[in-house]
């Protein structure tokens, strides 16, 4: 009894065509098969597999709860996979025993050549699905008429994986199937998120065009059933160093298509091969890094906020203090997310592409969501930091102190009196305009060329082929044969390749700029300081209420408003050390300082500054009968005189002293000593006043633009579009910085904006 192999195979095929579904209330093909299976317990098993009885096809793995996880993740496949080396093993050798609908055995065949892939393609690309480590995706739309022509009768496959064990023996491993259409007691158990409820099966088919025929097998079917989604999953054994995997799993989903007009109907079909590994350890390590670095970010932000409180001369903790802390914390936390994402991306890029024996596999697209979220957080927070710095730069207080003094007197006609009288020779304003214009020009000077940065990164990605390193396969080649299958891109690897190139090219530019360009061609910051000295103009700049910067530009020659001959003579004398040095302190060269001013000095500055910038209203320090313009002119001269006398130690109640910053003060970026009675000038040889320019914030700009580039690319998967939009935003923000900064410069210094070209 039950010895007719063909009949048993045919019964099994009918059960498979019924989606391996069975219920205790119905007596269909699967229920009959189960009945036979239960009543043949005395028969011997095949290869000691309890689910495979002699004379019966192997259809089920049993219906016990929790059996699926044991089958899928208990016993590793006894073979190793390697990407490189002499024992390279990157081929998944799937074979199948095929049967016709009547139960006749047809043949053993390899799955290469697209045996279970409905979408047509070249054999080379079809076979790429079985290259270990290559994430494979294939989808197409097939006309129903073509399906009816090519699949008159279904073919059934029992799939095995051929492997070589440690003793070099060829063996077969049965590949389990997860049929998403299977119903157990009318419940789609295989669609449950918990694998413990799954019921695994063995046999599959691609197209059933027989069951939907009515009356005559030669007639056109009313309905056909198609395997519209086939996915092959390979799971890496945790902590393996030798490329061990668990048994692969075929996940299959069928769709029923009502046949109305075969020539106009089509079906979308998907086939994929995906590789998985447990990401739990990676998540834990990332969380630890985020916690530790996040704590350091809080500490750093607190120190910055404390330094800011000292610089504004306010000990009170108010809403403004909280907002400032959050602004600093946004920048520091952005750096934390940036470090973590770059480190994570480079880890996957290096360890996946360079490994010999497979020990890591790339995260799947749904496992990348956490990483993408971190990148988004890094960009959003870095954007806040960038805007915070931008607003700080375009709202600074700045004034140009003109040290030039009148050279004598001239006769000047007096209107209405018909006579003349002597008057002081006016000091030319052109030097102030010239220095102001140069300051305006260096506001957006950078240590890199933004256009060169974008184009070079794009060149290496698209032309040289670095983008191919982001493909989800084991190859490290920068060039690919157009006839080869091109794997999908990994978002993590795209980010890793982009950040690596962007940072390397940016750092090379900065090193070239500092080591060569500034030394041998031009240093715009140093040139500006030199220009101040030659123009007899000092720059007084306040970035905070009680903190700022001072550039001492007082000419060592006494005056700068002179002719060409005298100017050249002065330069020659200075080159030959025939005059004093330029420094604020006699016999020194120190021209740049960080300044911490006392509250009294700041109050006096504000009283004059209020008149200088006020458009309307009565003048408090000047005659109320004078026009607004005349008030501004008088306030300008008053500010110039006040700041000049302040630098010359005229005001003993608002005096200052000069000192060096402590090493710890330089490291922490804050001042320990508060300017109570006297202001403090700190020697500053590093030109830190550039922090009020783009020049001194290159790291922030570089990372912000990098994150902008990566966010656009992660959203669009297009490096060219990302490069274009990155350059566009660079130009937009540069225009905003120039325009608003120019307006602020004109308002604070009384330099007519028309001269800022």
Automatic annotation (TrEMBL):
GO cellular component terms, semicolon-separated: MKS complex
Regions that span the bilayer: 326-351, 451-472, 492-516, 701-728
Gene: Tmem67
GO biological process: cilium assembly
Name of the molecule in the record: Meckelin
Range of residues in the leader sequence: none
InterPro entries in the cross-refs: Meckelin
The UniProt record lists the keyword Membrane: yes
Keywords: Membrane, Transmembrane, Transmembrane helix
Entry annotated with the keyword Transmembrane helix: yes
Top-level taxon: Eukaryota
């Amino acid at each position: 009894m039950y010895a007719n192999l063909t009949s048993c195979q045919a019964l099994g095929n009918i059960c498979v065509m019924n989606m391996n579904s069975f219920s205790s209330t119905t007596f269909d093909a699967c229920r009959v098969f189960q009945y036979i299976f239960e009543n043949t317990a005395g028969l011997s098993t095949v290869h000691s597999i309890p689910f495979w009885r002699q004379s019966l096809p192997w259809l089920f793995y049993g219906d016990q709860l929790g059996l699926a996880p044991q089958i899928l993740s208990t016993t590793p496949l006894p073979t190793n996979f390697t990407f490189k080396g002499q024992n390279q093993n990157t081929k998944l050798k799937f074979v199948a025993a095929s049967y016709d609908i009547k139960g006749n055995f047809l043949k053993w065949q390899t799955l290469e050549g697209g045996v279970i892939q409905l979408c047509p393609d070249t054999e080379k690309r079809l076979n790429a699905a079985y290259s270990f480590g290559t994430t494979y995706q294939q989808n197409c739309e097939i006309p129903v008429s073509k399906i009816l022509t090519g699949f008159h009768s279904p073919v059934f496959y029992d799939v095995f994986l051929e492997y070589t064990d440690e003793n070099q023996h060829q063996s077969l491993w049965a590949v389990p199937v997860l049929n998403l259409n299977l119903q157990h007691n009318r419940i789609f158990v295989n669609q449950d998120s918990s694998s413990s409820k799954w019921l695994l099966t063995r046999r599959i088919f691609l197209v059933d065009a027989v069951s939907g025929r009515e009356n005559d097998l030669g007639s056109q079917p009313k309905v056909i059933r198609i395997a519209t989604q086939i996915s092959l999953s390979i799971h890496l054994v945790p902590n393996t160093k030798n490329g061990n995997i668990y048994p692969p799993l075929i996940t299959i989903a069928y769709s029923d298509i009502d046949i109305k007009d075969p020539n106009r109907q089509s079906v979308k079909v998907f086939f994929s091969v995906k590789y998985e590994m447990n990401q739990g350890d990676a998540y834990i390590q990332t969380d630890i890094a985020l916690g530790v670095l996040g704590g350091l970010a809080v500490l750093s932000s607190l120190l910055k906020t404390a330094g800011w409180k000292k610089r504004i001369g306010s000990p009170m903790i108010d809403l403004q203090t909280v907002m400032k802390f959050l602004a600093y914390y946004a920048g520091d936390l952005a750096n934390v997310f940036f470090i973590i994402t770059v480190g994570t991306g480079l880890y996957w890029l290096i360890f996946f592409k360079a490994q010999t024996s497979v020990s890591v596999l790339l995260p799947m697209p749904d496992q990348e969501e956490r990483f993408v979220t971190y990148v988004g957080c890094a960009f959003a927070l870095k954007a806040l930091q960038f805007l915070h710095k931008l607003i700080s730069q375009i709202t600074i207080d700045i004034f140009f102190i003109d040290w030039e003094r009148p050279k004598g007197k001239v006769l000047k006609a007096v209107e209405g009196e018909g006579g003349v009288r002597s008057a002081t020779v006016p000091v030319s304003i052109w030097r102030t305009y010239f220095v102001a214009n140069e300051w305006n020009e260096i506001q957006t000077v950078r240590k890199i060329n933004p256009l060169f940065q974008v184009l070079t990164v794009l060149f290496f990605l698209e032309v040289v082929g670095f983008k191919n390193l982001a493909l989800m396969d084991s190859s490290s080649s920068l060039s690919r044969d157009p006839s080869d299958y091109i794997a999908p891109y990994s978002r993590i690897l795209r980010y890793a390749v982009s950040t690596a190139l962007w940072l390397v090219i940016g750092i090379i530019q900065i090193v070239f700029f500092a080591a060569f360009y500034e030394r041998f061609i031009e240093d715009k910051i140093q040139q500006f300081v030199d220009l101040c000295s030659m123009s007899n103009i000092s720059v007084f700049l306040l970035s905070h209420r009680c903190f700022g910067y001072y550039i001492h530009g007082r000419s060592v020659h006494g005056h700068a408003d002179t002719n060409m001959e005298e100017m050249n003579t002065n330069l020659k004398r200075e080159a030959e050390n025939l005059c004093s040095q330029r420094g604020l302190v006699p016999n020194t060269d120190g021209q740049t300082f960080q300044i911490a001013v006392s509250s009294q000095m700041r109050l006096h500055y504000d009283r004059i500054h209020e008149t200088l910038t006020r458009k309307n209203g009565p003048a408090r320090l000047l005659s109320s009968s004078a026009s607004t313009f005349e008030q501004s002119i008088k306030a300008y001269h008053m500010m110039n005189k006040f700041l000049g006398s302040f630098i010359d130690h005229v005001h003993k109640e608002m005096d200052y002293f000069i000192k060096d910053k402590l090493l710890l003060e330089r490291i922490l970026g804050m001042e320990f000593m508060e300017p109570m009675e006297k202001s403090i000038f700190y020697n500053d040889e590093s030109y830190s006043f550039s922090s009020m320019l783009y020049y001194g914030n290159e790291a922030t700009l570089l990372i912000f633009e990098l994150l902008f580039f990566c966010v656009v690319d992660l959203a669009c998967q297009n490096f060219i579009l990302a490069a274009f939009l990155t350059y566009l935003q660079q130009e937009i923000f540069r225009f905003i910085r120039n325009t608003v900064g120019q307006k602020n410069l004109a308002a604070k210094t009384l330099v007519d904006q028309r001269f800022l070209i």
